[in-house]
Amino acid sequence: RRERQRFVDKNGRCNVQHGNLGGESSRYLSDLFTTLVDLKWRWNLLIFLLTYTVAWLVMASMWWGIAYLRGDLHRSHDDAYSPCVANVYNFPSAFLFFIETEATIGYGHRYITERCPEGIVLFLFQSLLGSIVDAFLIGCMFIKMSQPKKRAETLMFSRAAVISQRDGKLCLMFRVGNLRNSHMVSAQIRCKLIKSRQTPEGEFLPLDQCELDVGFGTGADQLFLVSPLTICHEINSKSPFFCLSQRSLRSEQFEIVVILEGIVETTGMTCQARTSYTEDEVLWGHRFLPVMSLEDGFFRVDYSQFHATFEVPTPPYSVKE
């Protein structure tokens, strides 16, 4: 069976592209900092390099321009003459003076003199501009590096969801796990059913979102994720799967989006991991294999069985039937 278009990929990426923004695209520039953080790393590095390169060349040209207009370039080797910047006699030397000043290296060979008011003004402008550029770009790079997106890659979801009986009730279940020893603080899980439907008034909703109860009323959606957990949605009269049977599952078209949120214990930043299950990835009459075993003084998790399921006797009828 050909895999159909997903709303959310298995890795959590949303397959939504925004187009024909028109004049609304200017909103990206009004929030330039967030726009830079959202860019891919290659574009961030390119902007980082271009910004500093252009700023360095422009400022070095201004220092060279002051020396040129004052005539310092032709009298730089005259010991009786006091130039604006000592030992600046061409563009490379002006560029080196700017770098030494900006990076606070100060080798001592090139220095500004007190008989150059325009140089003092340019020096103050350079210091302010350099601080602003450093704060903006370095802050952007720091925020991008500290984003918890990579932490979400160590949060696992089972490849398939299963439908079987638990405690005498028909349930939709899937498994989540945390590969790291560091915990997810205040971990919470939510599920959305994405399915097209038509209202009684004749309006067609192509991607209607419906909440799947995974224990919101009982607090079961608040996870203590130190070992793999099986998340359970009870199929009852309030569930959108109330009329779902083993036979009707073959002809249904829906997508279950799972969202796991929590605070990374080591950084204190909020992390979100997502995945989805289409109707072909929902196995009727299956149950997950156990992955926990008791060893000498500790519990061991066998992740090689994390996605494994086995068949169990399950009535093929819907809850309604």
Automatic annotation (TrEMBL):
It is found in: Membrane. The keyword Cell membrane does not apply. InterPro entries: Ig_E-set, IRK_C, K_chnl_inward-rec_Kir, K_chnl_inward-rec_Kir3.1, K_chnl_inward-rec_Kir_cyto, Kir_TM. This is G protein-activated inward rectifier potassium channel 1. It comes from Geococcyx californianus (Greater roadrunner). Residues 155-320 form the Inward rectifier potassium channel C-terminal domain. One of its GO terms (biological process) is regulation of monoatomic ion transmembrane transport. One of its GO terms (cellular component) is monoatomic ion channel complex. Residues 8-148 form the Potassium channel inwardly rectifying transmembrane domain.
